[in-house]
Amino acid sequence: MPQNTLSNQNTLPAPDMLLTIVDLMSALFLFGVGLAVLGILVMYVVDRTQTTHAIRRNYPVIGRFRYVFENLGEYFRQYFFAMDREEMPFNRAQRAWVYRAAKGVDTTVAFGSTRDLKPTGTISFDNCPFPTLDEDATEPQPVKIGPYCDKPYITASLFNISGMSYGAISKPAVLALSKGAAAAGCWMNTGEGALSKYHLKGGADIVFQIGTAKYGVRDAKGKLSDAKLKETASIPEVKMFEIKMSQGAKPGKGGILPGAKVTKEIAAARGIPAGKDSISPNRHPEIDSVDQLLDMVNHVRKVTGKPVGFKFVMGGCTFLDDLFSNLAQRPIEEAPDFITLDSADGGTGASPQALIDYVGMPIWESLPILVDKLTEYGLRSRIKVIASGKLINPSDVAWALSVGADFITSARGFMFSLGCIQALQCNKNTCPTGITTHNKKLQRGLDPKDKAERVRRYQERITSEVCIIAHSCGVAEPRLLKRKHARINSPTGFSMTLDEYYRRVMNGEMRPVEARPSVAAD
Predict the structure, then answer these.
(1) What is the 3 state secondary structure string of 34-53?
(2) How far apart are alpha carbons 436 and 243 in whole angstroms?
(3) Residues 310 and 339: beta-carbon distance below 8 Å
(4) pLDDT at residue 508 is higher than 70
(5) Which has more pLDDT, 283 or 304?
(6) What is the pLDDT of residue 55?
(7) CA-wise closest residue to 296 among 211, 406, 405, 237
(8) Angle between helix 318-327 and 290-304 (nearest 10)
(9) pTM for the complete prediction?
(10) Fewer beta carbons within 10 Å, N or C terminal of the chain?
(11) How far is CA 522 from the centre of its chain?
(12) 53 burial type by CB count under 10 A (0-12 exposed, 13-18 middle, 19+ buried)
């Protein structure tokens, strides 16, 4: 017999060994089946005897699938069933544009638009027969905020990062946003959770938000501390202070950070106990009138020497009339340097659904009212307007500029640039992309160096494409866009310029409709 045949025979398992392996596998299989059967029996007994869930009590074991399908439903809708332009709060087309812009890949499309241009409220822009030549076009020009301050803030950036607290978002997310903002030349708002070393590490311009709990600038009793205000203002990166009156997603309700997300480091930055829910008051206790609001603005400005404004979500025009009438009795220097207007459909990490769904005015209605009121009272050139709320694509930004905003801020747009997949788990400390969790294993997926580049590219692409819209309309830079450059579809099926539309609405000649700058991405 040949040598290689003998060798092959020697390498074959013995029959007894094969039987042993088969028996072991069979035993393991039977053991697994036994465990499965035992588990099903245990679940059956538990479901049949518990009194909390009617479905599980009437349909033991099988009834559990109802909760599984309920939890999985949002993911199946997001990836398989929802059309590109129908999902909420942001549709797939909107998110996809941000992802492509952040990754630096091509954002052009082919064959034709899939955006439905017929619905009432659809926004479009009037192109000029003689558009601005590329060589004659300019980038956004510098704007001065706080002309009467000791240290006014001058910036050209029209698209900036809205308030997201360290605590609501993770350490690597804050680092990435800070570094990306510095690279793009835009500002970053701290949110109400105070200024952390991670905000400063990237070297970005900072807008310090003073929330109702005064985190970061509070004394031992939780009141505003002038000493800490001065200390914060002495940091070169801190350019402005924003007094948070209300937030679009939860007007009339303070910030909510679950105790599971209040780490020792976050607690130290805020000046609160670790591990306990961080619940801010639903308003500033010392601000109960427009007089007191203006007094607070002027006090903070006097102490810090830097521009001061306030953030709010509109709930009607009476407040504006009261505020601006009061300002007419004061020196112009005492006016807020800016007003940040948030939309009722703004985002948050945690909010009662009754507030997020039903309270406040959306930006498409409130922004033109604010701008027109400022003009009516002769304050438009004194007070800068910052618009916020679901403005994440170039058309959104161009629309807001056309209506009269000076700056636009976004939180969720920049979250998408970090890799957010709209998992809707911001309040659970289980964010799968590491953006809104303090779970170290989940944070590992977010590399600040890589994501900072995505933040930069997204901000720069927004600016670039808003400039493209502006040049198409015949103006050299985006802040020269006016209401005459944009159109809105009316209920008649025909469009009209925003100039004409807002005039007719304000005069009571027609009912307002929802402006839809980017029901879909550009």
Answers:
(1) HHHHHHHHHHHHHHHHCCCC
(2) 24
(3) yes
(4) yes
(5) 304
(6) 66
(7) 211
(8) 60
(9) 0.83
(10) N
(11) 19
(12) middle
